[in-house]
Amino acid sequence: LEKMSDEVRTMSLCGLGQSAPNPVKSTLRYFRDEYMAHIRDKECPTASCVALHKYTVIPDNCTKCTLCIRNCPVDAISGSREEVAFIDKEKCIECNLCYDKCNFMAIK
Question: Any idea where the domains of the chain sit in the sequence?
């Protein structure tokens, strides 16, 4: 993005074309980490991008109650009363049921 915006600025023959990359350059300057998370890690740090959101279990918060496991409509969550829940990201359909049912904020 940075190289492309530099090229646009350099190659443009009019003022509008030369200033068109400014929003990209500005957001890269102030939000480079967010860009990198989206591009490299395929994650959205603010959880705003629904397409990139993947549910995970926070082990320290999981009480092994199995509510998330019992409510998952596609059996994407494994675990038991003896082990912390684990969400299979390939099976998960992002329905939000596990998040809604967890009373311990163990799903993010």
Answer: 2-39, 54-108
Q: What is the distance between the alpha carbons of residues 64 and 33, in angstroms, rounded to a whole number?
A: 34
Q: How far is CA 90 from the centre of its chain?
A: 15
Q: Which two tokens stand for residue 48?
A: 């705003």
Q: Looking at 40-90, list the stretches that DSSP marks H as alpha helix, in order from N- to C-terminal side.
A: 67-71
Q: pLDDT of 90-105, one tens digit each?
A: 999 989 999 999 999 9
The pTM assigned to this predicted structure is 0.59
CA distance linking residue 75 with residue 34, whole number of Å? 32
- What six digits make up the tokens of 45? 């740090």
Domain 54-108 sits in CATH at: 3.30.70.20
Reported as a single tens digit per residue, the pLDDT across 10-57 is 999 999 999 999 999 999 999 999 999 988 988 888 878 877 778 999
